[in-house]
Amino acid sequence: MRIKRLPLNTLITGIGRLFKYEGKPWLINLWGESEESNARYSTSFSHMNLLAKRRIINSTRNEHRKSGFHLKFRCPLPAEWRSFAQFKSQLHFFGFEALAKFSNEDQTVKQIHIELPQLELARAFFFQNAYLTRSALELNVLAEDFDIQNNNDHYLINVLPSCEGSLALSHFNKPGFRRFLGYLLLNKNIRASYESIAQQCQAFERINNTVRTWNFSFIPPNLTGMNIEAYGYYDKLTNTFKVNEIIGFSGLSTHIDKPVYFYHDKFSNASKKSSNTSTIPSKPNHAEPKLNDEDEATPSNRPTIIDSPATLFDFDDPFETRKIADKTGSKNAIIVDDAKEYIDELIGDVNADEPGIGGTVKAGDFEGAKDQTDDAHLYLDRFSAFMQMLYKLEEKYGIQYSLTSKILPTVQGFTKHLKSDNNPRCIAEVHFLHQGQHFILLEVDTSDNANRLSTQLLTIKDMNYWEKNYEKIRKYIVQNTLNWPISFIKEIASRQARFNHPRIDEGQQVAIDDLEGWAKRIYVGLNK
């Protein structure tokens, strides 16, 4: 996290009001401590994703925050939230009583008072990239940039041309971003909260000659029953927790009951062939771009991504998203992009404000959220042929089984955790007993023809370590470019066999004879 106009190792000690000169982007005041000085600074409001109290900017020690006290609390009903402004600073806070779980040895759970800066809640929840940050201050941006159609079996969201110069299309390659954007656009409660930011800015800003100033405020979303994880300061005397930085939200409800498809006419220019590329070139150790808000950026659909701590999101009722090439939403319209990530020249200045044709530095942006929702159940249809085989195994040979699926993990520098349609790649895990022995079947989703992995049949030496070893297997599959980590599997399994798949067409259809042959090969393998 580097901002050009701040000294090295600047610890943010306070965040102030927004201000704007005529014809210029919004800026925000902040206070920082460094070896050089304790001073007030200002930087572009587009950088807000990076700016939380006690974070360290321009760190030379690979340290991003002075963490402070750590806990998780449950949000109460909206009627219990009180909005107030501090007397001296006039900065706006929310205050409420909440049940909190402390991150101490005793895992203490008790009722405490929460003081939550309104700007910090908006930063962590809404300001995930430069577009969502800038757009929050403008009226009606979401309506101007996105057209929503409610179809029988899916929502279709058209990304309109007005959006293109502001929001890099590469963001739509990320399932987590697509889900959050769909949530923001379709959930009335969440959208109303986001749009209240621009409404309150317009209503309460002050204008003095050519300078506009505003103390940030907004109407919070209804987060009843949801959990917030945060760092801050706990005052034992008053039993008050003062939030510095929110690091995660869990228990979120979307209330969206069907898939969300995103369409833009430039999506259809994507390559129709899946790339064999599975790794991302690593960054040079010395390469970290600096945010420069003095020089304008050139337009780019693949901006340089600034490393920053990510806020974690966990949804209780996730929905599937896709990026599509036509408006029918049919599966054969799914975009197949080159899986290779774009790696720009990372040394130099970038700007996260609105790009311009006369820009002289590269466009910069953030990916300030990480979706850690367990949503593998959304993709079970990719295993329909495998599941048909399991039905045959049960029907013909009496094998009773249990099936679960998981998403393959993100591994730094590798891309095969995503399919060519930029949705998560999953692995199915099947457990069953046969003649007193515990067997496990593993099947990886390769429905995009990225590779052909055989079905694995395993007997594990020690099931006490299976969960930990299974986690390693999933990671190794990504690192091995969709190949089984055979040497590791042989270490943990007393017995291992592989079975080739029959031919499976695009619709997961398999000839009956082939299904029965697949099931028979596995049954024979059980009895060897």
Describe this structure as you would to a colleague.
The chain is α/β, with parallel strands linked by helices. It has two domains: 10-371, no CATH class; 376-526, no CATH class. It has ten helices and 27 strands. The chain has helices at residues 118-125, 130-135, 141-145, 161-164, 175-186, 188-204, 384-397, 466-479, 486-492, 512-526, and strands spanning 10-21, 27-33, 38-44, 56-57, 69-74, 82-85, 92-102, 109-117, 146-150, 155-159, 206-208, 211-214, 227-235, 240-252, 260-263, 290-291, 304-306, 311-315, 321-324, 349-351, 362-366, 369-371, 401-407, 426-434, 437-444, 455-460, 493-499. The strands form five sheets. Strands 1, 2, 3, 4, 11 and 12 form a six-stranded antiparallel beta sheet that branches. The chain has a five-stranded mixed β-barrel with strand order 5-7-8-14-13. The radius of gyration is 26 Å and the shape is globular.
- Number of E strands: 27
Q: How many domain modules?
A: 2
Separate helix tally: 10
Radius of gyration: 26 Å
Share of residues in helices: 10-25%
Q: Give the quaternary arrangement of the chains.
A: single chain
The N- and C-terminal alpha carbons lie at a distance of: 57 Å
Secondary-structure-derived class: alpha/beta
